[in-house]
Design brief:
220 residues
Length: 220
């Protein structure tokens, strides 16, 4: 049985590291699998996998820092531009949804009762919620498209900025005694975390598409 058949690095860890590698850094990670094989043969696959995961985390942190240092303004501009675009698009989506649902309800019934108001709020809330998730995915793809080979760093920055802005805006409204109920903060946080995850997923999607396209061109 060959050495390659005995031990293989964790595929997920290898894939995650690959998401952050720049083109000029593709040849710098070859020593880790070799050392993984040595550790696996000496101490067992379990210890080798734990070692590989710890090295992968350190490698990703280093790649994020290196990628940011080589193109800081590209990443900052893409992340903040995407966050601003997301805020504007979400605000317009909320207004358009409210006007559209109000128009439908106006033609459907000439009066408002408690059930009607509850239905109105339900559909408005979930329409805006689903729409904001789709906007997060679309804008995340745009940001990833701008940040070539640094898709993950830019979309991670976008998700972090969006989360901070949403949380800050909510508590500022609470502090100035605006008509905002603090009880809704956990729900808002969960929804924002979902949107932030979609932004990061959009970076993964764009990165994988670019990698597949580059592989196809190299094989041609």
């Amino acid at each position: 049985m060959s050495r390659e058949q005995i031990v293989q690095p964790p595929r997920i860890a290898v894939w995650l590291v690959g998401l952050f590698i720049l083109e000029e850094q593709t040849g710098k990670q070859e020593q880790i699998p070799d050392k993984f094989s040595d550790i696996a043969l000496r101490y067992g696959s379990g210890r080798a996998r734990r070692w590989y995961w710890s090295q992968s985390v350190k490698t990703i942190v280093g790649l994020v820092g290196r990628g940011f240092r080589t193109a800081p303004w590209l990443i900052i501009g893409a992340a903040f531009g995407g966050a601003l675009l997301l805020r504007l698009a979400t605000g317009n989506l909320q207004r358009a949804t409210m006007e559209f649902i109000s128009l439908l309800n106006h033609h459907a019934t000439p009066y408002y009762d408690s059930k009607h108001v509850a239905n109105h709020i339900f559909w408005m809330y979930y329409t805006v919620f689903v729409g904001s998730l789709l906007l997060s995915l679309i804008i995340g793809c745009l940001v990833a498209g701008v940040a070539k080979r640094r898709e993950m760093i830019a979309t991670m920055g976008l998700s972090f900025i969006s989360l901070v802005v949403t949380v800050t805006e909510f508590w500022v409204l609470v502090a100035i005694r605006a008509p905002v109920n603090p009880v809704f903060f956990p729900r808002l946080l969960i929804h924002q975390i979902g949107a932030s995850l979609l932004m990061i997923i959009s970076g993964i999607v764009v990165r994988e598409i670019r990698s597949a396209a580059g592989q196809s061109l190299s094989d041609a």
